[in-house]
Every structure is written in C-alpha cells, then in structure tokens.
Design goal:
The chain is mainly alpha-helical. It is built from 7 helices and 3 strands; from the N terminus they run H-H-H-H-H-E-E-H-E-H. Strand 2, helix 6 and strand 3 form a beta-alpha-beta unit. Helix 2 runs parallel beside helix 7. 16% of the residues are buried.
C-alpha cells in the first residue's frame, strides 16, 4: 500500500505532466495526448462510480463502507477527484478542523473556522500563552497538512493570525492539475 508521501509525490508529478501537455508544439499531438488522458480519467471515473453504486446497494453496511472509504486519505482524494466523495467540501473541512483542534490546542494555539466561500477556506490560528517562536510555523504546517489531506479540492486556504513564512507547502490543489483533470471531476 503506498504511503501518503509517495501518493503526494505522484499527484505532483501528474500535475507537472499535465502542464507539460500544453508545451507540445504539434496541435494534433497535443490534442491527442489530452484526449488520451481524458479518456483514461473518464474510464476510471465510470468504473469507480459503478463500484460505489454496487457497494451502496448493500443497505447500511454499504453506506458504512462508503463512509470508511471516504476516511482513507488516498481513497478520499480519488473520490474527491471524481466527484464521488460521500461528504461535501464544507463537511470535510469542518471535520478536519474539529479533528485537529485538540492538537493545535496542545501545541499552544487555538483554531477557528472563519468561513468557506466558493471553495476558499478561511481559518484563524492564534498562538496562546508563552509559546516559542517556532510554534506558529509548526501549527501552520499541522493545519495546512490536515486541511489539504481532507479537502484537496479547496481553491484556496487562508490562515489568519500567523505570519506567512516564505516558501510553499508543495500542495497542488486538484483544480490546478489542469483542465483535463478538472473536467473529469465535473463530468456528469
């Protein structure tokens, strides 16, 4: 079973390769490459959707299985990609905030969900007490990692109350992987 780090590396590599499709000079070759990726995504999406339908037919145990699949980080990301996750963005974000709030508190901070609008998530993290200088960075990484795992389809994550460190978390939102993948998640 792949670990989360390996999965994230693969997702980033897919994003890079999808971006490189735009650099193909020959318009016919570029269109064919994009069509191939789209057809593979459509095939995988249809298969995954059918699996979910079959599992759901098993009354309560089927829904429990689907809920459990939605809790697994790797499977959850795939369900989000294909628009099949059992929870909407708002619910996944709220659950993630509730799940990590005790860790943030233990780490010397307080976490509040300020709002979600058009896929953009706003949080507030306040460092409390006599925390050291690295506490803010540690809490920010904890919050980012948890939210990106729970809701890779967020359009943006803003964390207020902490200084913005330089650099990037390396997270690639699903919607940024290119029109091909975004189109797959919007298919009917």
């Amino acid at each position: 079973m792949p670990d989360d780090k390996d999965f994230q590396v693969k997702v980033q590599r897919i994003g890079e390769l999808v971006g490189e499709l735009e650099k193909i000079a020959d318009p016919e070759a570029r269109a064919s490459a994009k069509a191939l990726v789209q057809l593979l995504l459509d095939l995988h999406g249809a298969g995954l959707e059918r699996v979910m339908e079959i599992v759901a037919k098993n009354d309560d145990s089927g829904q429990r299985t689907i809920d459990n699949l939605g809790c697994d980080p790797l499977v959850s990301s795939l369900l989000v990609l294909y628009g099949l996750h059992p929870l909407d963005l708002e619910s996944r974000v709220a659950q993630a905030v509730e799940r990590i709030r005790p860790q943030v508190r233990k780490g010397g901070g307080e976490l509040d969900l300020l709002g979600i609008e058009n896929g953009a998530v706003r949080l507030h993290v306040q460092v409390t007490g006599d925390a050291c200088g690295s506490t803010g960075k540690t809490l920010k990484k904890l919050v980012e990692d948890s939210l990106y795992e729970a809701a890779p389809d967020m359009s943006r994550l803003s964390i207020e109350g902490l200084e913005e460190p330089g650099g990037s978390s390396g997270f690639v939102p699903l919607g940024k992987l290119g029109g091909v993948i975004a189109a797959a998640s919007a298919r009917e």
